[in-house]
Write a structure and sequence with these properties.
heterotetramer; A: alpha/beta; Rossmann fold; about 40% helix; about 10% strand; globular; disordered N terminus; B: alpha/beta; seven-stranded mixed sheet; binds thiamine diphosphate; binds magnesium ion
């Protein structure tokens, strides 16, 4: 199988239009500020359980969301606020899930990053890493059986998740079925605290592609232009019938695994390396350098976005919590097959 | 004409494929080869493109089924042996079983598990692991004991909007025969009185129903009238029918082929003890397989699981109290 | 000085590493980072080369432990959450649990499962899945409820020549404190009378022991003397101690945090009903979590599982009969 | 990572001595005839359950067994009668397991190909494909922890088993730990009835090596010389500290999946292709060509071996079956932790 390796470079900006770049930047900014908002709510004790952010990974994530059509399928992971927004998730859906609102898509039943709307092509992850890939395969497979063509399914993954059996079985399955799957691995150098040298031994995760018979793409995950181009290319290849595409991005997460984690295991050297550059900051520099925006404009966008987010989150905080007494405690959709045991009545 | 339990499973799938364009079959060797047990024989020819060979990837097989279900299809998955479903366990109990509750999107998949002991199967081709699935919320777990039920329950399983674990007993595949396929059936969730009696209730499911019936026949020659309840579905479990039977007999023996800790027999005894305590004239009893892996040699295998003889002996113990 | 349940688990591992050169720890983030819950904090420094980070490969993690055990070592495996052990399920129930029976070679591995509900954990970080392990032959399944037991039972678990599933409750990690670590302990396999009483026996395990004790305290103000049995080990299950308690009280409530179908409460009720039927003055009862995935929002979460209030209410129901 | 690709060729015979070749041939012959014996017993209804043969795969299998030292570790699979014999398994152990004798290593508890002696480095497979690899990793890892060096662990696998999550997790684990693992994949073109194009999509399974950062070797599995050389090289690389070695052999199984299967799905073309050549026959031709043996000698060896096998199997057939009444029905080695339930007493 051929490998399509795109690299970020000086000529990149000739391909991505200012409009597209700006759109991407605005989603990145919104994702970053939404993450900040959740971090603040977490510190204020307003969120039960963990908060997981995508700081430093917005360029890659937004590129996934923007490369997809609304009729495509997207299975984001814990660091994909940007890709979710770009794919169409609302700030309210995110906030409702973190806050457990009964009006959210998960109705307080599931929380934080475990959110989505399967019928709209946005899959709500289960926690078990790697488990969503074969589910996306199934959707793509079903569309083909139904005679629907042109759908692409994108799945986001951390490099740690490539060690799971689920990853392997699903990527192989997609390759055998030649499904239009785009598997995007954000190699942020750590899985929780575990560095890459304790996770895998290959020189580059993109080296895995040949072993599955799929095409691969490597990209600098801090470079928005490169990410936009690479994801666009990968999605286009998948859509054109070239089978699964493995995209591997190099970057660093600029936060803890969750907000409870100070990421003390990330060395200053690494933080100060090229990997540790902040993609949002780089994008802003690029915008200014290109004169597509000046710093005043950036400041306006930022404060506008903060207001937008505050406006979207504030009413969610007043929304009703789920009520255990009116809750339907039924795991099956077929009502009469649910067991109602004596214990279940209020005692 | 005579139809085996295995034929019934094949026919039920043919029926489902014929009636509903959303149905397809996915599993190892199910296509041209017709499956390790021939349960999908010729279906790939009859329904081109809808009976599909899978790689040896149980996790991805179930995940793929869930995705197809989200997209509105109704996959039937064949596991080559129930024992290998442990490798796809996570996708069954955490992906398929939680989908509806989490997202309000139903997950109509049917996972066929060829299960249960046959002589010479050994520790990894003989297991009865229905309990690990019944334990998790969000799954329907079926255990047909007859040719008729194998047919009608599989058709109903595919039609249900929820994930169904369909436990089909390998020993029954070729040993059980019927004259014709049924046109009517009890709905899923209802147990069946397989034999009426007034002295003792034996609750059983799948192959053990036949061991219980054989024991009942033997006990009849001794003057005992033993009622046999065939659970059909172990989740949901038809507590009402069981309790109504115990109300008639006052005595309860629950028989299962699975490992002894927890499982169907524990659940049945616990329910009857809690909800039908006053109906019991003597302590309820269980009979399970032994608490070791399932042995290969037929001598050991026969001693490991209940047999008509040990069921009858346990029943006599209860009847004499 | 005050020692938490979590400290006890760390200390027990330090003790095992110190005492026995065959012991090592393997799991995700257990080395320099000290584990997701800090249960192995500083152990990598104290015992260089013997506390080892694993890739995100639960199947291979367990397989590796079995190999090391064959070679005579005594691995302690940390699963990051019990919920993720479903991915290593096959290696636990089919590889580790069958090794001794098949080959006569023991398999001394300890698999630590941080389990049980905490508010905000949601469906995949809250599960209590001890029953799926207890169901299979060949495993010892432990559920310590106190700081002292967390310490002494973990030390004993590592010393045992068989695979042990060590269920440590995440809610107890930081909530439970003791003055000092114990020097003596009940052996594994023995239940403990956590509180004496003569009116009702509540059987519980792990975190639910504390809910039961709280309920007992509340009921004491109403004049009831409730006995609480802490199972400590759910496999083997100390039926004798339970039955002896029921012999004193005549009433039985069994409480578990797990899903309701099957599991510990079914097994306990089934055993007492079969073996101690005559001792029961009223029908035995169970209290479990609800039959849905475990909810994220604290309101739902609290309603999903038993609480001291619902335990007390269920107990009152029994006491008033 | 570098790839070491050895190919069978005209110069091969310069390396393998006649003594070694003859030893290998005699094990192959013994394995073939032992398989024939089991097939005959199966047809005679003397064996409960399945019978799984290694016909056509003896050259590869024997090469594994011969490349290992007695202190090494070997996890054979269902088609490894030859490798087992070469590693030291007795005909009696094989017969006792198939016949369920209480005197065999599995004591009638497990049967057919599920046999071994873990303490002697011969692991008894569980049925779940791929599951033995990480167990071998564990043994190698433990030896290193104990300060024992020089051990190699070999695991046999079919190409179908490469689709399992267990394969992936374990090979990655071995690579991260740089363990002396030799993973030998017999690509016999089918997994039960499933052809390769429904199993994987890579051009060559050896292409997987780079994605794990391990070395790989490709070999013609019908050519004994090539197999001996390749396995020797792979085991030597592993022993010398170069980490896991992936060996991929091309061949065809010359029998059904089990003796119940007529393998109707294997086309005549494939049977008549180079892949379908019988490695035993090729080895005999080679011996005769080299004048290391003549046809008379081959006939003597064959009849001698048949007699040997008959002599070893006949007494096993008279050995005591396991007795359920004296059997210790205890899954735990710690006696007092086994639960003895009332049901367990004879009723
Ligand atoms: C099967 C499984 N094992 C363990 C975990 C616990 N866990 C959650 S996130 C994580 C690290 C993930 O690392 P990576 O895939 O690199 O993603 P990142 O967090 O770096 O974005 C782990 C081990 C899990 N979710 N699933
Ligand atoms: C996890 C798992 N799934 C399914 C099976 C059933 N099964 C046994 S052998 C086999 C085919 C194996 O093919 P391959 O790995 O190519 O080995 P070969 O038989 O060709 O030597 C299958 C599917 C199994 N043993 N384990
Ligand atoms: Mg990472
Ligand atoms: Mg094969």
């Amino acid at each position: 199988m051929s490998q399509t390796v795109l690299e970020s470079g000086d000529t990149a900006d000739t391909v991505v239009s200012s409009g597209k770049y700006l759109t991407a930047y605005r989603y990145m900014l919104r994702a970053r500020l939404l993450d900040d908002k959740f971090a603040a709510l977490y510190r204020a004790g307003k969120i039960h359980g963990g908060v997981f952010l995508g700081r430093g990974q917005e360029a890659l994530s937004v590129a996934i969301g923007l490369a997809l059509k609304k009729t495509d399928v997207f299975a984001p992971l814990i660091r994909d606020a940007a890709g979710r927004l770009a794919f169409g998730e609302t700030v309210a859906d995110a906030a409702r899930t973190y806050l457990g609102s009964s009006l959210g898509p998960m109705r307080g039943r599931d929380g934080n990053v475990h959110r989505g709307r399967p019928r709209d092509g946005l899959l709500p992850m289960i926690s078990h890493l790697g488990a969503m890939i074969s589910v996306v395969n199934g959707i793509l497979f079903a569309r083909r059986l139904k005679g629907i063509s042109g759908t692409v399914g994108a799945v986001a993954l951390g490099e740690g998740a490539t060690s799971t059996g689920a990853f392997h079985e699903a990527l192989n399955q997609a390759a055998v079925e030649k499904l239009p799957l785009v598997l995007v691995v954000a190699n942020n150098q750590f899985a929780y605290s575990t560095p890459n040298d304790r996770q895998f031994a290959c020189a580059d995760l993109a080296d895995k592609a040949a072993g599955y018979g799929v095409e691969s793409h490597s990209v600098d995950g801090t470079d928005l232009t490169a990410c936009l181009q690479t994801l666009e290319a990968a999605v286009a290849r998948a859509r054109a019938g070239h089978g699964p595409q493995l995209v591997v991005a190099q970057l660093l997460r600029l936060c803890g695994h969750g907000e409870h984690d100070d990421a003390g295991y990330i060395t200053p050297q690494l933080k100060n390396s090229a990997l540790g550059r902040d993609c949002l900051k780089l994008a802003e520099d690029f915008l200014v350098g290109k004169k597509w925006a000046d710093t005043a404009q950036l400041a306006v966008w930022r404060s506008e976005t903060i207001r937008e987010i505050d406006d979207a989150v504030a009413p969610v905080q007043r929304e009703p919590a789920p009520d255990p007494f009116t809750e339907e405690w039924q795991a099956l959709s077929t009502k009469h097959l649910n067991e109602i045991r004596p214990d279940d009545f209020e005692i | 004409m005579s139809i085996t339990y295995l034929d019934a499973i094949r026919e039920a799938q043919a029926h489902a494929l014929r009636d509903d364009p959303r149905v397809f079959i996915y599993g190892q060797d199910v296509a041209a080869f017709g499956g390790a047990f021939k349960a999908t024989k010729n279906l790939a020819v009859e329904f081109p493109g809808r009976v599909i060979d899978a790689p040896i990837s149980e996790d991805a097989i179930i995940g793929m089924a869930v995705g197809a279900a989200i997209e509105g299809l109704r996959p039937i998955i064949e596991m080559q042996f129930a024992d290998f479903s442990t490798v796809g366990f996570n996708q069954i109990v955490n992906q398929a079983a939680t989908l509806f509750w989490r997202t309000n999107v139903p997950c109509p998949i049917t996972v066929r598990l060829p299960f249960g002991g046959t002589s010479g199967g050994g520790p990894f081709h003989s297991q009865s692991i229905e309990a690990i699935y019944a334990h998790y919320p969000g799954l329907v777990v079926l255990t047909p004991a007859t040719v008729e039920d194998a047919y009608s329950m599989l058709i109903e399983a595919v039609a249900i909007d929820d994930p169904v674990i369909f436990c089909e007993h390998k020993f029954l595949y070729r040993h059980l025969k019927a004259e014709k396929l049924p046109s009517e059936a009890l709905p899923i969730g209802k147990a069946r009185i397989a034999r009426e009696g007034r002295d003792l209730t034996i609750v059983a499911y799948s192959a053990m129903v036949h061991d219980a019936l054989e024991a009942a026949t033997e006990l009849a020659t001794e003057g005992w009238q033993v009622e046999v309840v065939d659970l059909r579905s172990i989740k949901p479990l038809d507590t009402d029918t069981i309790i109504a039977s115990v109300a008639r007999t006052g005595r309860l023996l629950c028989v299962g082929e699975a490992f002894p800790w927890g499982g169907v027999t524990a659940e049945v005894i616990a329910r009857v003890s809690s909800e039908g305590f006053g109906l019991l004239d003597v302590p309820p009893q269980r009979l399970n397989a032994k608490d070791t892996p399932i042995p290969y040699h037929p001598n050991l295998w026969l001693a490991h699981r209940p047999t008509p003889q040990t069921v009858a002996a346990a029943a006599r113990n209860l009847l004499r109290q």
